[in-house]
Amino acid sequence: MKPWLGGLLFGLLALLLIALVNSCSTVSRTVFAPPEIPGANYAGNRACFECHTNYVRIFPASPHARIYNETAAMTGQSGCESCHGPGSKHNEAGGGRGKFIVNPGKDAAACFQCHLEIHAEFSLPQHHPVLEKKMNCLQCHDPHGMDIMKPARGLAMARFNQTCGQCHREQAKPHAFEHEALRDGCTICHQPHGSVNAKLLLDRDNNLCLRCHAQTPGTGAGPPEIYIGVVPHKDYVRLGTCYSAGCHTAIHGSNIDRRLLY
pLDDT digits over 207-241, tens only? Predict the structure, then answer.
């Protein structure tokens, strides 16, 4: 083989390797298209203001208002219409619920266009029934206002767990002896969208409780022991889950015992 031909082949091989590396390491961003309304065109947020004054007024303070950014990875930069679809036919019809408009409060498909990871969580074995359309995102989230983590059109949160307490009233009611974890919110133990564990728990069995409560003595303290407070618990945790083995059955709070007993 001629020397110059070998150099040429080596150069081509190097270029091929560089192309392969770049193709594997480069992330191609997906552009999400807003909902489609057959025959409708984009009208802009000003067209929404006349009927939906309050929503349009508070929307600039919402995290969802970032959709105005021209560099955002979504086509049809038109604020409201990025989630509700083009609104020209809706305006021509004089408005009305569900008339030529997409309502994410009825169908979460529009939300899942961007929140792909949340869509995946709702497909886990234990989940809130959003995909079954027995619930919707707006029951827990306000998509228009400053605080997305509160229900739509809800009052300012008087307590951290008010959103969950709308449905889970027994668990969220005040107790004489509260479980301190509730001060950090229900999500300290529960994954609200979906989980592989029963009751939407972050972990299963005693592992959930021991994430906060386990204490182990130093190496000079004899056989391995699990302490909770000053009480050895190694034998207790063998009996089953802390809240189902007949011990701390009032897991959310108790009115009779500070150790969360009924």
Answer: 888 888 877 666 655 567 788 877 888 888 888 88
Residue 69 CB-half CA count within 13 A? 9
Phi, psi angle pair for 256, to nearest 5°:
-125, -20
DSSP string across the chain: --HHHHHHHHHHHHHHHHHHHHHHHPPPPPPBPPP--TT-----THHHHTTSHHHHHHGGGSGGGGGG-TTSSBSS--TTHHHH---HHHHHTT--TTSSS--TTT-THHHHTT-HHHHHHTTSSEE-TTTTTSS-GGGT--SSSS-TTS-TTPPP-SSTTHHHHTT-HHHHS--SEE-GGGGG-GGGTB-SSEESSGGGBSS-THHHHHHHH-B---TTSSS---EETTEE-TTTGGGS-TTTSSSS--TTEESS-TT---
What's the pLDDT tens digit per position in 13-36? 655 655 554 545 444 445 566 788
